[in-house]
Design brief:
269 residues; alpha/beta; Rossmann fold; Alpha-Beta Plaits; six-stranded parallel sheet; two-stranded parallel ribbon; 7 helices; 12 strands; globular
Amino acid sequence: MIFYFSGTGNSAWVARELAEQLNDHLYFIPDERAGEAHYVLHPNEKLGFVFPVYAWRVPKFILRFIQMMQVENVSYVYFVATCGDDSGRMDHYFRKAAKRKGWEVACGFSIVMPEAYVSLPGFDVDDQQREKSKLREAKTRLDDIISFIAESKQGKFDTIPGQWPWVKSVVLGAFFNTFLMSPKPFHTNSQCVGCGKCAQMCPLHNIEMEQNKNVDSAGTQLSPHKIPVWHKDCVGCLRCYHSCPHHAIEYGRFTRGKGQYIHPDQHPL
């Protein structure tokens, strides 16, 4: 069994490749009801998790899902995380969550993929040359990872911690999760045509299209069409921003003038 989450498609590609080459089944985490999730593994069946790294940590909602899910006959647990550069001490958080479940993690890996985080100054998508280079290198790395897992090997944790992993995961990660996960800064600019693709593509079904109630000084409605409204279940995956065909979604002022990225093999969720 492979449980995964993906916003812009990097982790979805990894999960599909794993499932295809290991002849395994995929479960999209937002579609699973964590409190009611009860799974039974077959003898020698592996339990895998694939997810993006957020703020050099495992996304909080992934950790909550692991905490609440019930799985029988667990014997081999692994994870593969995607990141734009490095992962900090992300593996520490995953292994800690697994230990609380009584699981011993056999192995874990990170794969550098094209950058998708654009919600702070200094962060932007990669240029086309770097994006293509990362995708090529990711394919080679993933093939090696799959070979390791297919042979049921254990004890390897190659997670690309980078420089100052403790500072990034513990200090900056805590700041990010406390102050930078709010959906409130999301809004649309004048390019929005009310197409609703952002609501359609949101993996958490957290966006609704509602009539724009804003008016100008003369009392005239600013937009004749519906606009997206972000609710509280946002996990900051930025799929809405990157999927907008008109580049009409912004996160405060941080995303102005920045690029968009969706994995070239991304399929509808």
